[in-house]
Every structure is written in C-alpha cells, then in structure tokens.
Automatic annotation (TrEMBL):
The chain crosses the membrane at residues 33-55, 211-233, 245-268, 280-300. Residues 48-297 form the G-protein coupled receptors family 1 profile domain. It comes from the Eukaryota. Its main location: membrane. It comes from Equus caballus. One of its GO terms (cellular component) is plasma membrane. It is found in: Cell membrane. Putative odorant or sperm cell receptor. This is Olfactory receptor family 5 subfamily BB member 13. Keywords: Cell membrane, G-protein coupled receptor, Membrane, Olfaction, Receptor, Sensory transduction, Transducer, Transmembrane, Transmembrane helix. PROSITE patterns: G_PROTEIN_RECEP_F1_1, G_PROTEIN_RECEP_F1_2. The gene is OR5BB17. InterPro entries: GPCR_Rhodpsn, GPCR_Rhodpsn_7TM, Olfact_rcpt, Olfactory_GPCR. GO terms for molecular function: G protein-coupled receptor activity; odorant binding; olfactory receptor activity. It is a multi-pass membrane protein.
C-alpha cells in the first residue's frame, strides 16, 4: 500500500500542468510582421461575419432558409476564429507562450465543437441548394421553418457531443514529460503524441469522428452539387447552366480547401509531414477559412436565381 501511494505521488508530481506553444515563428522580427497581418485578418473575420448576421436579421427579404443557415455559419466562424486567434495574437507579443492544461482543453473543445457543427451546416446548405434548384415547386414545403430549426439544432448538438467525446478521450490521457506543441494552438494530433500512456483509443476516436463527420458531410456536399448540376444541364439553357455552375463552384472552392486541409491533418500520420507543413495547413483552416467562407457562399448565392423565386 505504501509503494502504491508513493507511485501515485510520483505520478502526480510529474504530470504536465502546462503546454508550450511554439507559434508560427520563434523570430521576434517575423512575429512583429505577422502580428498586424493576422490582427487584420481576425478583425476582418469579425466585421464581415458580424455584419452579415446583422444584415440578414434586419433585411426581411433575406429571411430565407439559405440566409438563415448562412447567419449561423457566420456565428460559427466568429466563435471558431475567436477560439484560436486571440491566443495566437497575444503570443506574438510574449517571450513565453505557455497555456495551462485546462485552457488548452477548453480551446480545443470550443474549436472542435464549432468545426464539427460547421461541417454539418455546410452539408445542410448544400442540401438546401439541391432542393431549391432541383425541386423548386416543393421547396417551400420541404424547407419549412420547423425543419430549418431542427437542422441547426442537430448541427450544434452533434458538434457538441462529438467535441466532448474527443476532448475527454484526449485530455484524460497521462502527460508526464514533453509539453511542447509545435503549433500556434492546441492541435489534438500533436497533443496526443505527447502522451505517456496508451493513446490507441483516443486516436481511433479521432479518426472515426473525422471520417463520419468530416468525410460524411463532404460526401453529402459533393453529391448534392453533382445531382444539382446534372439536373440543370438537362433542363436549362447554357446561360442558366453557367449560373448554376458558378454558384456551386464558389461554394466548392472554399469547402474543398476546408475539408482537404482538415482531413489531411487529422487522418494523415503526424510523422509523415513536417511541422512547417502542419502550420501552413493550420493557418488555412483555422485562420483564413472563417474569413473566406461566408464571402464565397454569398457571392455564389447572389449569382444564382432559384427557378421558383425568379
């Protein structure tokens, strides 16, 4: 019994209580240049998404399912960006970039929640376009307000549960030695690699959720757009087909960047690509996508016209 208590005491004494984020660069001159750049990107993300939400709420002509989903997507992008950008910006001004164990878990939980919910909402918006363009006469009855609210609740709820499972499975592991994260935020793949205990179950949960939520929603988006384009090519003129193609293409560009970078990060073995590649990919889907997402979708929506609405 004495030996067991002694081992438990040693285990508690050597457990990690803080992590160290290396950030995008360890050179102060580079950090001084990066600070205003990423501050500008973060402010643009906040202004653009918040402005979009306000315009949609105030303009009665925009009270449609597509813009309803877009307002919640903008809210997710604000939360997603805010879970990482403020910490990254403050670290540019610090010599020591420490983050507590609890703060790291909280940051990851919020980011993962928003990320998974965003995948579901992007799939929902693709389905909305499929119904609006492919079944215009049935659009109002299918995309009723009740269904729209249920889809949003389902996206947020599934994201919350998925993030909770991932966070618990990751941060329940025992961390006893290395505590350096070679990134500007708490990346779960790099955190798990620091664990001193068996992380097989945590890695399996991460991979399964990435496949089910990430690849599953991406498949829904691709199929919805493919069916939509195929149906329009059969029925519409060349001019109408070009409009639909532009609508789908603007959405698919940012969606493809978001999914390809995130899936590569979470499904590809961490040892097979460099830390520099990791950071570059992280900047795309953590910093740039929240700013570009609503812009691309709005530009595509404005170019399109549903047959039923003229």
């Amino acid at each position: 019994m004495t030996l067991t208590m002694s081992m438990e005491r040693n285990r508690n004494e050597t457990s990690v209580s803080t992590f160290v984020l290396l950030g995008l660069s360890d050179e102060k001159e580079v950090q001084r240049v990066l600070f205003p750049v990423f501050l500008g990107i973060y402010l643009m993300t906040l202004i653009w998404n918040l402005g979009l939400i306000i315009v949609i709420r105030m303009n009665s002509h925009l009270h449609t399912p597509m813009y309803f989903f877009l307002s919640f997507l903008s809210f997710l992008d604000i939360c997603y960006s805010s879970s990482n950008s403020p910490r990254m910006l403050s670290d540019f001004l610090k010599d020591e970039k420490n983050i507590s164990f609890i703060a790291c878990a909280t940051q990851y939980f919020i980011g993962c929640w928003m990320g998974q919910a965003e995948c579901c909402i992007l799939a929902t918006m693709a389905y909305d376009r499929f119904v609006g363009i492919g079944r215009p006469l049935q659009y109002s009855s299918i995309m009723a307000p009740g269904l729209c609210h249920k889809l949003i609740a389902g996206a947020y709820g599934s994201g919350f549960l998925g993030s909770l499972v991932q966070t618990v499975s990751c941060f329940r592991l025992y961390y006893c030695g290395p505590n350096i994260i070679p990134n500007f935020y708490c990346d779960v793949t790099q955190i798990i690699s620091l664990s001193c205990s068996d992380s097989y179950i945590s890695q399996m949960i991460l991979s399964l959720e990435s496949i089910l939520v990430g690849f599953g929603s991406f498949l829904v988006i691709i199929l919805s757009h493919a069916i939509t384009v195929a149906s329009i090519l059969k029925l519409s003129s060349i001019k109408g087909s070009a409009k639909v193609f532009n609508t789908c293409a603007s959405h698919l560009v940012v969606v493809t960047i978001f999914y390809s970078t995130s899936l590569f990060m979470y499904l590809h073995p961490n040892s097979s690509h460099s830390k520099k590649q990791n950071k570059v990919l992280s900047v795309f889907y953590v910093i740039l996508i929240p700013m570009l997402n609503p812009l691309s979708i709005v530009s595509g929506t404005r170019r399109s016209k549903r047959p039923s609405r003229g």
